[in-house]
Structure formats: structure tokens, C-alpha cells
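Incident log, structure service

09:12 report received: a user says their structure output differs between two submissions of the same chain.
09:20 pulled the input from the user's history:
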Amino acid sequence: MNQPWQELLEWWFGPSTSAVEAAAARSKLWFGKRDSQDAEARERFGDWVEQALAGQLLEWQKQPEGWLALILLLDQLPRMIFRDDPRGYSGDALAQQYVQAGIAQGSDLQLAPIQRVFIYLVLEHAEDLCLQDQAVAAFTQLRAQASPSEQALFADYLDYAERHQRIIARFQRFPHRNTVLGRPSTEQEQLFLQEPGSRF
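09:34 re-ran on a clean worker, output below:
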């Protein structure tokens, strides 16, 4: 019997069991910005996102894959459904809370490495240096455990984590979020945002 969250995980990760194949097939969904993808996320999973934000899917945390799906609903899906809107970050605090609790219980270690990426991305998204440090440590571990054919993929994920960490160490926040969140940018942030690769 399929669990309710299986539809979301199948949409997000696809049928492949290989990290490299899943990333090749799904990276545009994961990291691209397409109106059609955002609309599909809203149509198929918008109700679940609202329920997750309201704290109504806590039972999902009892199983690692349900926990993963709940994290996607709080961290990844709002960024699509509410793109360029402050609500895109509205699930971050809950996601961070649930990720920390799950990691403490070892739930992340029961997931496939490519699935764990989206647990640790919650830490990478945090405007908190301690969580950023934790993200870098987690991605370092993933790379160390990767097979030779997956080394390049997980090294790339680690590189992005380190880049996020450096920005938080420098500014204590992500300057590229300032406009959406209605925060004034400092002069140093304005200069930084003119640099290539300053936005994620």
C-alpha cells in the first residue's frame, strides 16, 4: 500500500535509484525556474504545502520517507509555489526544526544519499552560521561516502554549501533575499549583488 507522500517523492526524484541519473533527470525541476514547474507544484501539492505550514502533517515524521516529504513541502515547494514572494520562506523555521530533530534520531541515515541532499539543503538555506557549518559538514560526509562515479556530483553539492556558508559568514543573511523580504540592503550587500554568482 502506497503511503500518501509517495506521489510527491516520485515526482521529485523520479524512478531512478542512481544519484547521478536522478540528478541528470531532475536537476531542472530541483534548481530551475520555470513557470510550468511552479504551476504543477501548486496544482498537485499546494494543499499539502498549506497543511504542512499549518503543522497538520506531523504524523509523516514517523517514517524517514514521510519526514523527507514533509521537509520538501516546507522547504522546496514553497520556493516554487510562492516564488518571488515572502511566503517562499515561510516554511524555513519549521523545516529547520524538523530537520534537526530527525537528524538527532538518525532519520537522515535511513535515506538514500540523493534524498539526504534535500534534508541538508534546509541547513544550507538557513541564515544562521551554525546551521551553515552543519550543512557543510553533512555535505562533506556525503561526498566522502560517495562512489567514484558519484564523487563529482556530491563535490558540486558541497561546493554550493560552502558558497552559502561564506555568504552567511560575511553578511549574516542572504542579500539576494532582501528585495523579496522588504529588507534594505547595505552598501556592501549592493556591491556584492553585482558580482557573478551572488544569487541562488
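09:41 both user submissions now match this output. Likely a transient worker issue. Closing.
09:42 reviewer note: Residues 151-171 form the longest helix (21 residues). The mean pLDDT is 95.
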